[in-house]
Amino acid sequence: MVKGNIVVPEEILSFCCNGLQGSTSPLHVQEPGEREEVPGAMASPFPPRNPTEVQMSQLVLPYHTNHRGELSTGQLLKWIDTAACLSAERHAGCPCVTASMDDIYFEHTIRRSVAGSNTRGGMYGAIGACAGARRSPAFSSSRTAPCPCHPLQVKLKPLTPQTEEEKTEHSIAAERRRMRLVHKDTLKDLLIRSPRETELETRDGSVAVPAEKTRVESVELVLPPHANHQGNTFGGQIMAWMENVATIAASRLCHAHPTLRAIEMFHFRGPSQVGDRLVLKAIVNNAFKNSMEVGVCAEAYGQEMSISRRHINSAFMTFEVLDQEGRPRTLPMVAPEPGDGERRYREASARKKIRLDRKYVVSCKQTEVPLSVPWDQSNKVYLSYNNVSALKTLVAKANWALAREKEKVRMYTLEEDKFLSFRIDRSVRIAASQAFSLLSDLRRRHEWASHYASAELVQQVDDDDMIYHVVSQTLSHENKPQDFIILASRRKPCSKGDPYVVAFRSVTLPTPPASAGFTRGETLCSGFCIWTESDEASKVAYYNQATPGYLNYVTTNVAGLSSNFC
């Protein structure tokens, strides 16, 4: 762990990595190449938060950069992986290897300048990474590594978040894991429902390039500097090699220097050791107007060529080609190979649709119309994740101000940016699990909520996600009752102390269509959190990131002109 930053103006990249909870006695093991604290050095901008925190600084040298003078993606992945694994080992108390890394989106670039990386731990050893002024937000998972001392994977002790921020991240990490587990099924379902015709066209009069001409294969020998102290190849090193061959494949299509914009989930299927040969294969799967997807595969084999190759990893990388003004260039089309090439071509289109759906979900703002997002099978997992994580993030806000209190019911408000949110809570003599069961079924809400007229179940997505058509008693500015199409996502506690969660947000469905007798309303982020106080008592809180339709309700109650909040 690097405890201080060596002051070299405009050439230091700082990393800060920690798990949510580590061993009670922090163990410091000096790693190869680790820098000791230098007297008089600049203090780290990341103060230690818990025993699993790892801090290090890296000097960005010319050979770390690409042709544009920017830090290469492969090098950044190696540094992030090193910091994350060290943090994971502090929690596990034994050697760890990278198991997976969630999608990475490269938003900005790092030139030879001072930049920061912050990685935080999460559920099941997940390490959140945010490197270089938010250049590559990512989340990686680590698992214990088989070795002579630990022949099997070790069962990890539960993570215990200490701060409110860590508790929120710990809870949201469970949603990311849920999304990872069903990613393949989401893609498969989208392909089944999509037309099978393969689109072949030309752009700007150019002829489609055969995908076979972009194929690249490289072999790397795993040497001791590429591996950890147990002899397992660093995950970051494998990712860096994969990024290299993917870049070459992309350049064969565009005949220019491509820029990496996104990486689909890395998932390590098995380890490789010192002495192994890694065969890295890459090919352009599909090329869209301004971007292309490159598929990369890594296989390993030992000295005996007769032994079959082991599939180590696969990933999908999205590249762009920038002109002199930094704008994406138009790319030529790709002609897929018959058979397997056509399958990869269609899957690339499906992954692009999923990425666009996710981007649309995240980018919806209160000032934009509509607030709801389209619902279909391709974005259901991410929309459910966004629904729950948005509510948990709202719950974790620190600046709630008590606005009114009456009959042991408290109303709080939160003002930030363009949003006004409110929270209403009280303690009740009912078990938390029973309150959770009642509040998560919107069909019964009209029994106790005067502004609900009815709620009809439109679609049972799965055991924890439902879509309802809700009719409200509240009149709109058009003097008509409002109706809503609402996604309800319910989650049980991840660990002791966590609340039961019922999250709501508006979605768009073709049925039921908007009716002339109603004004179609929307909710951006709302829901219930229920905390256990005893076997027969709980605290129930309702949250709402108020849309314009709720503002009159909030202001009249805050001003004391109404007590409907009770």
TrEMBL record:
Entry superkingdom: Eukaryota
The reaction(s) this protein catalyses: butanoyl-CoA + H2O = butanoate + CoA + H(+)
GO molecular function annotation: carboxylic ester hydrolase activity; lipid binding; long-chain fatty acyl-CoA hydrolase activity
Pfam families hit by this protein: 4HBT (PF03061), START (PF01852)
Pathway: Lipid metabolism; fatty acid metabolism
InterPro entries, per database record: Cytosol_ACT, HOTDOG_ACOT, HotDog_dom_sf, START-like_dom_sf, START_lipid-bd_dom, Thioestr_dom
Chief localization: cytoplasm
Boundaries of every HotDog ACOT-type domain copy: 50-187, 212-325
GO BP: any one term: acyl-CoA metabolic process
Entry annotated with the keyword Hydrolase: yes
Example of a GO cellular component annotation carried by this entry: cytosol
Keywords: Cytoplasm, Fatty acid metabolism, Hydrolase, Lipid metabolism, Repeat, Serine esterase
PANTHER family the UniProt entry points to: ACYL COENZYME A THIOESTER HYDROLASE, ACYL-COENZYME A THIOESTERASE 11
Protein name: Acyl-coenzyme A thioesterase 11
Source organism of the structure: Pygoscelis adeliae
